[in-house]
Amino acid sequence: MKTGNNLKSILILVVLSYLFFMFGNGLLSLTNPDEVFYTQTAKEMIEHKTWAVPYLFGAPQFEKPVLTYILMRAGFLVFGINNFSARFIPALFAMLGVIAVYFLGLLAYRDEKKAFFCSLILMSAGFYIGLARTVFTDMVFSVLILFAFASFFWGYVRRERKGLGTTLFFIFCGLAVLTKGPLGFFIPALGVIIFLALRRELKFILCRESAWGLAVFLAISVPWYAFMIKKFGQSFITEFFYNDHIRRVFEAEHKGNDTWYFYPFSMVACMFPWAIFSAASFFYLLKRIKSNRTQPIYLYLACWIAVVFLIFQSAHSKLTSYILPAFAALALITGDFIYDAITNKKPFIIKLILFNWLILACFPVVLLVAANHYPDYVTTKGPVYALAIVFSVLLLVLLALIIKKRLSAAVYLFMVPVLLVLYFALFFRGYFEPYVSSKDTCEYLLKNYAVENRILCSRSYVRGVRYYTGEDVAVVNINGRPLFSPHPIPDFRSDEPVREFLQKQGLTYCILKKGSVEDIERIAAGGFEVEKLKKIGDEYIVRVRREN
Questions:
Q1: How many distinct structural domains can be found in the chain?
Q2: Which residues pair with 474 in a beta bridge?
Q3: Which of 245, 250, 257, 324 registers the highest number of CB atoms within 10 A of its CB?
Q4: Distance (Å, rounded) from C-alpha 199 to C-alpha 186?
């Protein structure tokens, strides 16, 4: 393979990745409830002058390990504390993940064009783009898992690189453990062990290189946990290991997701616009495993996907982001399937492409119906109509390519719809931003009123209000569930504590959802004056004044 071709492909991937993951990241305000959570934590680490202890609401918080916060804090030093810098680390890791898939594809398939195409599949998968542009730990964690799997496979197929590949495997496992916990080791380790066991080559990893690698892994991953346990003792152990790991195995944080089909559906649907091809690629993968026993990549990818699926499927607490570590492997099997089908002119590929076109053709219809069905949320329909028209033109171009059997061009063009929707959302963000972020609400409150006491918030707004105002906050959540991970702030779930709180404060400003406004009006009846000051998006600014 010519090095010049590789460099050209990498440069193209970097430029495209920037457009898919990073360009425009400063435009949309940080959203509730998670982006503001992670950003506020890194921000408070700066305020407390620490690189080791995550803080939130002025106290140590133990929900996630420290690596992502360290990287975010470093980003803040370079770019300042803003929307772009908060999203820079996930976007950067997403770009690195695309490049890693390219190199793994080269190593596995020995076909530069196929490796490049697999990278494009990952780059344009809708859910991957979403997490690349969102402040979570999942992208950093998933790309480190990808690096670990890629490093081991490099050492496996290039035996002269076994030592380096094994060492890198353990290094990336250690960094993954510092990003999201013990699963950073168990996912790649179980995948590799099952793969070697099925190949009857377990002795490959029972070697001196693995012993040294394990020592490096422990040197990377253990010190921070030891430090936190020594400093905070049982409170860290209970919150991090029990509440955020063990309890989530047995108790669903989001009960509606706790179904047998949640992850199978998510794995396929979140690969949009490649979902139909991803579903078909599983059958192709099984066929390739049976017919290509000399090519280990197919069994390796199957073990990788299966381990991610089985680990998270067994837990009752399910979130779509949990299965992101499988997406690189999904992109590799999907890209392999599409590329081979088009190259070998398989008749079924035309049917799949047409079916995928029909799925895309539903989008402008659904968009227009939704715009008319939810007038409260779509106050100006011009951008919606513009997107529907542009999308329809793209569909006509796609259909023309399919009719002319220019299948490669049609498949490449499938990347565009997601990018089109993304940029329309960014440049017309003003129409929906108030519904996903508390920024406008908080700015209005601080600009027009003197806030001197705790701000009373609905549960879903509390993190955003803290981030955008810097003020102390309390939660009103009548008859609601407690926060899954406790925060060191007042959390009122019945009437009397709220009334006592309002009585003590005298004057209280609130940022509430509609249901919480009704609760406050009921609780404050007799003895308090309740005034609705402003509604921005779904958020009500309410002032409660104690009557003398």
A1: 3
A2: 456
A3: 324
A4: 20
| Same domain flag for 443 and 533 | yes
Encoding tokens for residue 427? 């440049």
* CA-based nearest residue to 6, from 148, 72, 151, 105: 105
Of 309, 343, 377, the last residue of a domain is: 343
- Name beta bridge partners: 535: 540
The torsion defined by the Cα of 403, 406, 409 and 415, in degrees rounded to 10, comes to 40
In this structure, the answer to whether residues 370 and 480 fall within a common structural domain is no
Name the pTM for this structure: 0.94
Residues 177 and 97 occupy one common structural domain: yes
How far is it between the farthest Cα atoms of the chain? 84
| The two structure tokens encoding residue 5 | 């071709």
Judge if 407 and 447 occupy the same domain: no
What does the pLDDT profile of the chain (548 residues) look like in tens digits? 556 678 999 999 999 999 999 999 999 999 999 999 999 999 999 999 999 999 999 999 999 999 999 999 999 999 999 999 999 999 999 999 999 999 999 999 999 999 999 999 999 999 999 999 999 999 999 999 999 999 999 999 999 999 999 999 999 999 999 999 999 999 999 999 999 999 999 999 988 989 999 999 999 999 999 999 999 999 999 999 998 888 888 887 788 888 989 999 999 999 999 999 999 999 999 988 987 766 899 999 999 999 999 999 999 999 999 999 999 999 999 999 999 999 999 999 999 999 999 999 999 998 888 888 777 666 678 888 889 999 999 999 999 999 999 999 999 999 999 999 999 988 888 888 999 999 999 999 999 999 999 999 999 999 999 999 999 999 999 988 877 677 889 999 999 999 999 999 999 999 999 999 999 999 999 889 999 999 999 999 999 999 87
Residues 524 and 443 in one domain: yes
Angle formed by the axes of helices 262-269 and 275-291, nearest 10°: 100
The reply to whether 311 and 354 lie within a common domain is no
| Claim to verify: residue 418 and residue 276 sit in the same structural domain | no
Query: Residue 376: how many CA atoms within 13 Å on its side-chain side?
Result: 5
Do residues 18 and 64 share a domain? yes
Residue reference for tokens 């820079």? 88
Quick one: which H or E segment has residue 481?
none
Supply 369's token pair: 């119906």
d(CA 201, CA 206): 10
- Coil vs helix vs strand at 540: strand
Contact 90, 133 (CB under 8 A): yes
Angle between the N-to-C axes of helices 327-343 and 112-124, in degrees from 0 to 180, rounded to the nearest 10: 130
What is the domain extent for residue 93? 3-343
Both structure tokens of 138: 């999942």
Q: Which of 416, 432, 448 is the last residue before a domain boundary?
A: 432
